[in-house]
Specification:
The chain is α/β, with parallel strands linked by helices. The protein contains 7 helices and 10 strands. Helix 3 crosses helix 4 and helix 4 packs parallel to helix 5. Keywords: ATP-binding, Cell membrane, Hydrolase, Ion transport, Iron, Iron transport, Membrane, Nucleotide-binding, Transport.
């Protein structure tokens, strides 16, 4: 996935919310956007997902141009897996129905079998017929992750999806899920304001401040020679 020289402003105002953003996420890599709240991290995810359109520049996913200032591929046609702080499950569908919804072009039986295997992979198969409201926040996030795995996306976008979990559960789930995406060779772009998180999981880090990328590199480089001390405290 390539984000090429993206600029973006809210409501066509003259002041850029994002300026000259360049990001690369290779297959099987976990890349983190690190910075304080309001620096533009989540806006980048919205542009990649197709929720917003860039003012200039381009976005390429799996060698396909999906966004520029002249054209934009619809959200549902980008094959992007989105996981946010809140699980956004369908409340009227059971756990297994939520996962089946993400699987396309297969028979009912094949969809069910795939969904059940993913539930087993995450050790939540006993909630197969439960509705989201009876699950804990952590269990709901696991179902949301299961749905993304079932989708087999070209890229996964994570907007602080583990922040509402307790520390121990957060580390366990995060490490397990990211290793699953790595095994499937699916690129992951993760937003965080926690300076410890990229050090633990990221192959590459982009540090942001005020709508700009001010430093990028491997986690060891960022932490050994930081240009933004306040971000890493």
């Amino acid at each position: 996935m390539l984000v090429n020289n993206i600029c973006y402003s809210y409501n066509n105002c003259n002041e850029f919310a994002l300026s000259n953003i360049n990001i690369q996420v290779k297959k099987g890599a976990v890349v983190c956007l690190l910075g304080h709240s309001g620096c533009g991290k989540s806006t980048i995810l919205k542009l990649i997902a197709g929720i917003e359109n860039p003012g200039s520049g381009s976005i390429v996913i799996n060698d396909r141009l999906v966004a520029s200032n002249k054209a934009s591929v619809a959200i549902e046609e980008r094959n992007i897996g989105l996981i946010f702080q809140h699980s956004a499950l369908f409340p009227h569908k059971t756990v297994i129905e939520n996962i089946i919804f993400a699987i396309k072009n297969l028979s009912k039986k094949e969809k069910y079998n795939i969904a059940l295997e993913i539930l087993k992979l995450l050790n939540i198969e006993k909630y197969e017929n439960a509705y989201p409201h009876v699950l804990s926040g952590g269990q709901q996030q696991l179902v949301a992750i299961a749905r993304v795995i079932a989708q087999n996306p070209d890229i996964v976008l994570l907007d602080e999806p583990f922040s509402n979990l307790d520390i121990l559960l957060k580390r366990q789930i995060r490490q397990y899920i990211l290793s699953l995406f790595k095994k499937k060779n699916i690129p992951v772009l993760m937003v965080t304001h926690d300076p410890q998180e990229p050090l633990e999981v990221a192959d590459f880090i982009y540090v942001m401040r005020n709508g700009k990328i001010i430093q990028s590199g491997a986690s060891s480089d960022i932490y050994n020679v930081p240009k933004a001390d306040c971000v890493l405290q």
